[in-house]
Automatic annotation (TrEMBL):
Function recorded in the entry: Catalyzes the ATP-dependent phosphorylation of N-acetyl-L-glutamate.
One GO process term, biological-process aspect: L-arginine biosynthetic process via ornithine
Family indicated by similarity: Belongs to the acetylglutamate kinase family. ArgB subfamily.
Protein name: Acetylglutamate kinase
Phylogenetic lineage: Bacteria, Bacillati, Actinomycetota, Actinomycetes, Kitasatosporales
Location (main, coarse): cytoplasm
Keyword S-adenosyl-L-methionine assigned: no
Subcellular location: Cytoplasm
Gene Ontology cellular component terms for the protein in this record: cytoplasm
């Protein structure tokens, strides 16, 4: 038994700020309780063990707070490292990996066999929550071959797919069972082939199919820079129409992310956010505190609302 001297706990001046921080989360808890949040965890944000562990804590926190988190993960750098180890060439066209059948085997092995397994393991360190799957499972994601548009020409980039259908039943069943689906961006083709899908595109399509409240993309920059690479001023909020106007200027990895955000908010997702995954607990800070961090894309008619409350 431990007995505290009378009044000591109440006078303890470190307690109040902690309580106030918790109370700051109350309106957001009220707002997001029971809502689905699709979180894309980019390969570039998985830079160290501490960050990955903090990410897992945040996702489980969301689950305990009554939200329904769904994780779609990337793994581009991890795939490139493995291809390199195997002496296989790796190249990108318009931010998409040129995917030969041999490359596809490595993509599948790294995403479903390594990255997804690691995230599932970290999440399940907190309880029996995470279930890993790929878009192939239960026909969750169906794709057709995608061509890259280069100087007006359609260029063949191999087994890269565009999602044409999402069958969200399996993911919804997992959510209904209190699980946290962890999904690799691989799809079954209408032609029976297996396709490599950009993970931002997959997360966006899934957010739409699930009727998610929010799409959150964790990457390795603070958000969308207004004038990249010349300045690091981050656009904190923009409307779908404003984003659409910016798309032609965007380069490399940012293009599929912002296209995904645009597609999401134009198709009924409440907001889409790009956050710095290198900042520990950026997910919790974004969802449960008043200071929005990163870039938030809102539907055109929500543009008047500020501070993250779209
Ligand atoms: N306007 C922009 N604002 C921020 N980053 C940009 C912009 N345009 C291009 N980028 C690049 O996009 C990268 C993020 O995309 P990517 O490397 O594919 O990340 P991830 O692995 O998280 O999907 C940034 O590191 C940056 O180099
Ligand atoms: C078609 C295509 O480019 N697929 C990606 C899939 C992984 C991914 O998107 O990972 P990040 O989010 O970490 O970039 C690739 O092969 O790298």
């Amino acid at each position: 038994m431990q007995i505290a001297p009378k009044g000591e706990q109440a006078r303890n001046n470190t307690a109040l700020p902690k309580a106030l921080t918790l109370i700051e989360a109350l309106p957001w808890l009220e707002r997001f309780h029971g809502k689905t949040v699709v979180i894309k965890f980019g390969g570039n944000a998985m830079v160290d063990e501490e960050l990955k562990a903090a990410f897992a804590q945040d996702v489980v926190f969301l689950r305990y707070a009554g939200l329904h988190p769904v994780v779609v993960h990337g793994g581009g750098p991890q795939i490139s490292a493995q291809l390199d180890k195997l002496g296989l060439e790796s190249s990108f066209t318009n931010g998409l990996r040129v995917t030969t059948p041999e490359t596809m085997d490595v993509v599948r092995m790294v995403l479903a066999g390594q990255v997804q397994r690691e995230l599932v393991g970290l999440l399940n360190g907190h309880g029996p929550f995470a279930v890993g799957m790929t878009g192939e499972d239960a026909h969750t994601m169906t794709a057709v071959k995608r061509y890259a548009l280069v100087d007006g020409e359609h260029v063949d980039i191999g087994l890269v797919g565009d999602i044409v259908n999402i069958e969200a039943g399996a993911v919804k069943a997992l959510i209904g069972d209190g699980r946290i689906p962890v999904i690799s961006s691989i799809a079954r083709g209408t032609d029976g082939h297996v396709y490599n899908i950009n993970a931002d595109t997959a997360a966006s399509a899934l957010a739409v199919a699930l009727g998610a409240e929010m799409l959150v993309v964790l990457t390795d920059v603070e958000g969308l820079y207004a004038d990249w690479p010349n300045s690091d001023d981050v656009i904190s909020q923009l409307s779908a129409t404003e984003l659409e106007a910016l798309l032609p200027e965007l380069a490399s990895g940012m293009l599929p992310k912002m296209e995904g955000c645009l597609n999401a908010v134009r198709s009924g997702v409440g907001t889409a956010r790009v956050l710095d995954g290198r900042v520990q607990h950026s997910l919790l800070l974004e969802i449960f505190t008043d200071e929005g961090i990163g870039t938030m894309v809102v539907p055109d008619d929500d543009m008047m609302v500020t501070g993250g409350l779209a």
